[in-house]
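Supplementary Methods S3. Input chains for the assembly prediction are listed below.
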Amino acid sequence: MDLGITGKTAFITGAAGGIGRELARLFAEEGMRVVAADLDQARTGETATLVQQSGGDALSLRIDVTDEASVQSAVSAATERFGAVDVVVNAAGIYRIGQLADVPPDAWDQLMDINLRGTYLVCRAVLPAMLERGRGSIVNLASISGRTKSTLASPSYVASKSGVIGLTMALASQSAARGVRVNAVAPGPVDTDMIRGLPSELQPGLISTIPLGRLGTPREVANAIAFLASDVAAFITGETLNINGGAFMV
Ligand SMILES: NC(=O)c1ccc[n+]([C@@H]2O[C@H](COP(=O)([O-])OP(=O)(O)OC[C@H]3O[C@@H](n4cnc5c(N)ncnc54)[C@H](O)[C@@H]3O)[C@@H](O)[C@H]2O)c1
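Predicted structure tokens for the full assembly:
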């Protein structure tokens, strides 16, 4: 299927991470120009190099999504280099497990700043130009934890991802009339550093919750993001798409 995204520019936060990096590679395979942005400058550079080695065009930028000035400057650098940003994917995030008692206020603030405020700041920085041009597509990384019960994820993570889903619906409602779509994906456990970093004794329990019997792959999440970002999904906005091997169904 032709996604119709060839020649467009994608801005990806969290591009040094498992999902963001795979998405950068997929977008480049589809002929997109890629802005790879992440707090981890060295690993973001590696993502850009991977894209370039496969013949793609990539710009690597350091971004701290919690910092408004850093976000503005990354979006300006992307626009300066490629003219305009057509697709934005908010994949920067951190994960925590634990009970409420394990979440002191400073840890709550840090997680909400990255996962929710960061998504808000990036959307706020890119939306005006998209609305002005009358086109654009944003895909936010939510999570299965933001949609249903979760005994493992910290209440802060759950709240941040529910917040991302709410923010997605609000921005989709307010942007649709001007040609901009905003969607989210809600992955279940995916095989990246985020999950590999969990204590090994928790891994079998995680997989036992997944009817398909395995973790998702970064490519499987990237495929769903590319679909939502593309014109193939032109009539879809405000949606949160589950990618979870059947772990949560509605
Ligand atoms: N892996 C999973 O099982 C899973 C499941 C559901 C949702 N998600 C979500 O998908 C997204 C990507 O996750 P991943 O699995 O690729 O994780 P990852 O840990 O591999 O990548 C996350 C990236 O975010 C970056 N980041 C953290 N703080 C930042 C900041 N302040 N500014 C800019 N970048 C920052 C990190 O440097 C890292 O490269 C996250 O939002 C995560 O919550 C992941």
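The helical segments are 18-29, 41-53, 68-82, 105-133, 155-175, 193-196, 203-208, 218-229. Residues 6 and 31 are 4 Å apart (CA to CA).
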